[in-house]
Amino acid sequence: MVLLKWTFAFLVYFKKDAGKGILGYRVGMSFLTDLIRPSIKTTKKREVAADVWEKCPGCGQLIYDAELPQHLYCCTHCGHHLRWNVDERLAYLLDQGEEQGSQEPGTKVGPAPVAIEVRVPADDPLQFKDRKAYKARLKEARAVSGHNDAFRALHGHIEGQPVAVCALDFDFMAGSMSRGVGEALVAVAQYALEHRLPMLAITASGGARMQESTLSLMQMARSTAAISMLKEAGLPYIVLLTDPTTGGVTASFAMTGDVHMAEPGALIGFAGARVIEQTIRQTLPEGFQRAEYLLEHGMVDMVTPRAEQKAVLARLLGMMTSGVRAG
Ligand SMILES: [Zn+2]
How far is the centre of ligand 1, averaged over its atoms, from the C-alpha of 61 (Å)? Predict the structure, then answer.
């Protein structure tokens, strides 16, 4: 009986500490290593600074951070378009005047962009608080971005073609549409009307800003109305859809363009895929809500890689405004 007890205790010990040993035998590794010290010591994992390498969400390979700007934040292995900071995007897309560096011979260069004035409404009209007060979230986002809200409003040029630009900043509260963002769209549209300029919206947004509730949803109607004024005046309106463009932004000014250009692989949709699947109880097709899928189904006009966007936009602006400025 005593022998049986000991055998049982021994087996329990082995089971608890079982590891895969030499030749695949299951042995109690800690039991053995307690007796025989390993001759080869495990090498320490080399620490890699997180901000030096980035893992590509497309192919999973490591991309060297320092190489990203020269490749316009596209993966050097598979070309996957990573999310790109709005200020860096605008600095690339818009002409920077005489100081601009090397340029293809014969390409026009317009003056550096100037800000379009936007009167941002007073903060936090609903005194909203979730886990954190909305005022505190705004303060934090402003400190990080150095901007007042999730937009940039600029009068710039793309290869010499003038354009009024409203770009959303995904790094500022996920580019959500606040009253400030709505105001920016209206201001840029009015500026375009006044100066008879085409308008370009660059979208990257999680949708409406929940902290502003219905007031945020109202911006869908306001921005759509502002774009309609452009259309009535015969001024072109182009949308560059970047990853991700979702919710109330997709359901308003992002989808009312004369031309919709999307970035490769960008997520563009209204409701999230999981919500749709749960609602319709069907599995969604491969690539659903991605730029290429939307191109196939006629929701966007072109899927244009970053490196080509500038030239294509300049060509579009040139063609679409040839009769505008005279009128
Ligand atoms: Zn990749």
Answer: 6
Q: Please tell me the distance between residue 269's alpha carbon and the centre of ligand 1 in angstroms.
A: 23
Instruction: Give residue 119 CA to ligand 1 midpoint distance, Å.
Output: 41
Cα-Cα-Cα-Cα dihedral sign, residues 118, 121, 123, 127: negative
Give the integer Cα–Cα distance in Å for 191 and 93.
20
Across the range 101-109, mean pLDDT stands at: 75
Cα 50 to averaged position of ligand 1 atoms, centre (Å): 17
Question: Can you tell me the mean pLDDT for 18-40?
Answer: 46
Mean pLDDT, the chain, as a whole number? 87
So what's the pLDDT on residue 106? 77
302 C-alpha vs ligand 1 centroid, how far in Å? 22
Ligand 1 mean position to 67 CA, how many Å?
13
| Nearest alpha-carbon partner for 226 in 166, 175, 301 | 166
- pLDDT tens sequence across 121-154: 999 999 999 999 999 999 999 999 999 999 999 9
Distance 55 CA to ligand 1 centre (A): 8
pLDDT at 315: 97
Provide the pLDDT for residue 254: 97
Contacts of 6 (CB under 8 A, 6+ apart): none
Residue 121's alpha-carbon distances to 124, 172, 182, in angstroms, are 9, 17, 10
